[in-house]
Amino acid sequence: MPEDLLDEQLSRSEHRAQPELLMPHAVLARTAADLAAKYEGVVSRQTVERCVFESYTALRRTSRVHAHLTTLAGRFAADRLRALAQSDGSVPKDVPEVLFVCVQNAGRSQMAAGLLTHHAAGRVHVRSAGSAPAHSINPTVVEAMTEIGVDMGTQYPKPLTDDVVAAADVVVAMGCGDACPIYPGKRYLDWTVADPPGPSPRRGSRDPRRS
């Protein structure tokens, strides 16, 4: 069977299994309405709608599988809106905010964020992002983190956005060059941490704290 025909059949099958793929605009509009109600008086409805649809577009650009993409876009937009409200003082910060940034947000930054979230136990709020995000998290990272009791099942690569940088108190860059915008009053750290290996794990690369 020709590859293009196979891709078309797979796409149709995916759409039948996930009806929201046939009407992402309607799903995203409902998400935007819910978030607009949550942030009424804090963030304008227009800003909320733009954030939701931009988040969907950004994730779709790098994702290979579009099932559940509207759900991920809603989560991504909700986190960005919270960051936006925090950065302008509309929503107070209960704990310090730390942002880890690497290139693909598929290895180093995900591991660092997962480890800090796990060990901080709510005393720090952690985000991660990538300057050029991959389509999925490195499976070696997921396996290695699972082995030490850190669940990565709900995580996904996210693009770097100004709002999460503006909300951070500490920004930790890992090989992403000058991708992070500079805001006054923040602490910027540059960590030299090798990217985790691919499908064949190497124990020495599993814990960023040892690098």
UniProtKB/TrEMBL annotation:
Gene Ontology biological process terms from the UniProt entry: response to arsenic-containing substance
InterPro entries: Phosphatase-like_N, Ptyr_pPase, Ptyr_pPase_sf
Disordered as annotated region, ranges: 191-211
Limits of the Phosphotyrosine protein phosphatase I domain: 96-200
Keywords: Arsenical resistance
The name this protein goes by in its record: Low molecular weight phosphatase family protein
